[in-house]
Amino acid sequence: YASGQDMVSILQLVQNLMHGEEEEETSQAYRLQNVGEQGHMALLGHSLAAYISVLDRERLRKLTTRILSDTTLWLCRLFRYENGSAYYHEDDREGLLKICRLVIHTRYEDYTIEGFNVLYTQQPVIYISSAARTGLGQALCNQLGLPLSCMCRVPCNTMFGSQHQMDVALLDRVIKDDVESGKLPLLLVANAGTPGAGHTDKLGRLKELCEQYNMWLHVEGVNLATLALGYVSSSVLAATKCDSMTLTLGSWLGLPAVPAVTLYRHEDPSLSLAAGLTSSQPVEKLRALPLWLSLQYLGHDGIVERIKHASQLSQRLLENLKNLDFIKTSVEDELSSPVVVFKFFREYSNRDQTSHAAQASTIQHPIISNERYIYDTFNQWLGEQLAQLVPASGVDVVELEDEGTCVRFSPLMTSAVLGTEIQDVDQLVDCLKMKIPVLTSTLQLREEFEQEVRRTVGLLYVEDLSWPGLGVVRYNYHSDGKNDDKQEKELEKINTELLKKLNELESDLTFSLGPEFGGQKNCVYIGMVTEDLDVSELVETIAATGREIEENSRLLENMTEVVRKGIQEAQLQLQKANEERLLEEGLLRQIPVVGSVLNWFSPFQASPKGRTFNLTAGSLESTESTYVSKAQGTGTTPPPTPTSSLAKQRLPGQKIFKRSLRSSDAFSETSSVSHCDDLEKVDQRPPALFPGQEQGSLETEKAEEQKEVAQATKTDTEDIQSDKLPRDCTKVEEQEGQR
């Protein structure tokens, strides 16, 4: 584009890049997030910042100073952080990075002159919680140019308190050891709402520890948003005494393209400038303009209302989860917890718990690990299902160190963007109630399914703990001396056809090839099931269908080989018949002109000889009978096609593999069969003899009775033929009595 493009063409290109290709490729039309008016104010701030930057230097300086001071003052008052300064940044980790540089400049007076030589004499140490964001420590070391040995991960509580809170006693011992070894404790990063479970560290005790060792305390987390509410828990309120904190207002208030803010307290402006927390360039101060516009648009009441609404959503979900069985929650404070983490977990009864403990003590590690993997898989499936059924809820799946895979509901991070309401939370609970019976039934029937498959000949149970469903099964192909490649292809062909046959059945089960990546080959994956599933019938159907497919495949292979050999044999026999015909006709009849004349004078009568191949018998037969009877013989009757022995009578609309319906049908069939057998036994019983009556007299009386019945029948026939109807009903009754 040497000559450039006009504005319309450029905007059309941007629109095509944003929407055009995605709408063509995806079935569902892609739509932008509904930002609302407050979002438009934030987006307008970026455009205004570009226009304001072209003002003259003096007017630009006054305007940026006013915007920066107003925004900082509002945020400090809103979040109860007195006498604080603010640094606005796009990356939420950039604020902590600048704070680390500020602390290094403060603790190492000669750092500006000597640089890393000062750090070499006394190595700095930065402490972060093991529940912090993944990769946070490594990112800080990379940006600061420090070795990873300068980063110390503090474990969480194991015995007392929350398992997501930093172990303060252990931290104290670690700091003492570092001081004794000549290191310099520099900074501690605490959490007011861990990224996973949303728990808050004991900020009060951590602040005392930092003051003891002259350390800097930095706090971050989603629970800092509750500082704007009227009621704040004491654990979160202690964050107002820390040295710095990072606020992510964009996600809390649903404001797009709004910078994060790091509030800090420091008395030396020169060190803040050296660390990059402040800038002498007026354009850098315009980062606060989008937030300045949004805060004025929402006002104090609007901001508090949004944060309060998010807290009410989490509290509503937590109250409903308490009434659900098999749901285990992990929250810090049941009265006010902005983040709700829950998981599906089936607790054992006293009897089951005793047997389970005895079994676990025998084979401890495999059972515990397998059970952990299975629950992680089921909760992964549960979280994905809930997110798909109720997308406005904003639930996601999170991996925790102790609890494993859990479902997380953090409305402070999602509700303002997605527009989550109370109705969405209620719908989420309803969907959860529908999924719990499916999870419990599948978990109970997994072991029964494994035992049935292992007992069934021809089936192989494949253990895949990452599959959320009943289990994985493979039909074993009985190879007859075939090589591995051919056997693998045949196995894939049979299991693919088996999957197709199972999906054609009228059942509520889902059969698939498994996950796209990481699944087993040539297997049938069975999804979630309900409690009325008949596992034995399911396994028997899979085995019978697999045998039927294998038999048909073998029959086709045998037929192909037989046909090939039959064709070769027919060619040899036809060639031999042609030679015999030449000998019978003679050599003269083979000459073109002479043969025609000779055939005219002396015709040669020869019966046509051909061969026909009987597919049923697999033999080669002559066609003489066909020419004699002028019709092709049918041969023997082909054998019936093998079918499954599981064809059962079912009611209209009744699904297959249902235990309750199957048992009722079996009961009715058994009752009817037994009733018919009783009737046959009654008909076959010999008549009873009276006392003193012999068998011969009984036969005589029976013969006389038959003779009388025959005479009465003859009389009735004559009356009907002569159109003589009975005069009254009495005569008819007498005739019927005689019969």
Commentary on this structure:
Belongs to the group II decarboxylase family. Residues 675-684, 699-708, 715-739 have a biased composition (Basic and acidic residues). This is Pyridoxal-dependent decarboxylase domain-containing protein 1. Its cofactor is pyridoxal 5'-phosphate. It is a single chain. This protein is an alpha+beta fold. Helices cover 54% and strands 11% of the residues. Strands 1-7-6-5-4-2-3 form a seven-stranded mixed β-sheet, with helices on both faces. It has a four-stranded antiparallel β-sheet with strand order 8-9-11-10. A four-stranded antiparallel β-sheet has the order 12-13-15-14. It is elongated.
Unreliable sequence segments: 23-32, 349-367, 636-647, 661-700, 712-739
Globular, elongated, flat, extended or rod-shaped: what is the shape? elongated
Structural class based on helices, strands and sheet pairing: alpha+beta
Helical content class? 40-55%
**Mean pLDDT score:** 79
Instruction: Give the CATH level 1 class of the domain at 307-347 and 369-435.
Output: Alpha Beta
Proper CATH architecture of the domain at 307-347 and 369-435: Alpha-Beta Complex
Spatial strand order of the main sheet: 1-7-6-5-4-2-3
Can you count the helices? 25
Strand content: 5-15%
Say what the CATH topology of the domain at 307-347 and 369-435 is: Aspartate Aminotransferase, domain 1
Give the oligomeric state of the chains in this entry, treating copies of one chain as homo and distinct chains as hetero: single chain
Strand tally is 17
Gyration radius from CA atoms, angstroms: 44 Å
| Distance from first to last alpha carbon | 112 Å
Largest sheet: 7 strands, mixed
